[in-house]
Design brief:
Layout: H1 6-40, H2 49-78
Helix pairs in contact: 1-2
Length: about 80
């Protein structure tokens, strides 16, 4: 992994934060739709509640991977 300058690091950090915030919106939407469809025993166009929960889980995994990448970049930067 290449070393980033201070400006490049801050720019990358802003981009990752923006992507993190953008992914939180579908995460909450998928989670709430999953809860509502499970409570009402309802499917939307063949999407069962488990599909909505899997979509929200995918968003959580992407967010965790992005956070892990940022932590790794910060630790490498300290060296």
């Amino acid at each position: 992994m290449t070393q980033l300058s201070d400006e490049e690091y801050e720019k990358e950090k802003k981009n990752m934060t923006r992507y993190h915030n953008i992914l939180e919106i579908p995460l909450l939407i998928f989670l709430f739709i999953g809860i509502i469809t499970a409570a009402l025993n309802f499917t939307i166009n063949g999407f069962t509640p488990i599909v909505w929960f899997l979509l929200s889980f995918w968003c959580i995994l992407v967010i965790i991977c992005m956070e892990t990448t940022m932590i790794r970049a910060a630790l490498e930067r300290k060296k």
